[in-house]
Amino acid sequence: MRRRSRAPSSPLPQLHGIDPVRVRLPEDPEGGWTTVREYLVDRYGAAVGAGRVEGMLRDGRFVGVDGPVDGDEPYAAGRHLWFHRDFPAETPVPFTIGVVHRDERIVVVDKPHFLATMPRGRHVTETALARLRRDLGLPFLQPAHRLDRLTAGLVLFVVRPEDRGAYQTLFRDRAVRKSYEAVAPYDPELALPVTVRSRIDKERGVMAAREVPGEPNAESHVELLAHAGGLARYRLVPVTGRTHQLRVHMNALGLPILNDPLYPVVRADGPEDFGRPLQLLARSLAFTDPVTGEPRSFLSRRPLSGLG
Q: Which of 38, 43, 191, 303 has its CA at 20 to 30 Å from residue 167's CA atom?
């Protein structure tokens, strides 16, 4: 069995905490590309325009192991190129990331509302990953799991690539004990604590998830912590990890989380209202460290509005 050779290291550094894009020139049995330019225009021209590709070549933004690439160079299958993509214009998220714990293997942070965990879609440089790489000087940092952009609270990042799999496996195997807190309406008629089980479906391109008939694939425990003035603070413990699970289950109980832009009604898209964050917080993380075997436990220090 032929083993695929390891890709060479990028000659480009990170930019704003974001890795360059790596391109491996594919095999070309039909001989469709005689130059590097022809391939790059063929691959990226439809997305950004042939003129933009030409401009990036002129500016030396496509780089090989030996430096900037000339578009007229002969096409060579298997060659690696790198470039930094154009970053979208982003509104800065005006909140800081709190570092709860840092050692040589992991960084646990208190992510603010509105900040995505890692680059996706129109959120690239304004993400927790990009900020932390820049601010902490940790270029290989990666998240062991994700936290929804609108949810605040604890996220665990791994410092070294060789440790990443061990910590990611904890979350994959549900070996991490997690709890959340939320502020939502108070219903004195609702018997709590309660366990909610349902089947949740999230279609690609549709903002809100929905409950559908069928075998349950999502389970959450909900208990009351305090209430006053028609609002209550709840402790939420997800057993599974479906997209928007806690938000969907709270809404199904008739307790939509305060300032939720999707449940029960999808709010019209528009500028972020940083003064009305979703009142959902990843409050605690606990697990047995897969490297040292020691127990680990972390608490978010962020408050929630309304009931603290």
A: 303
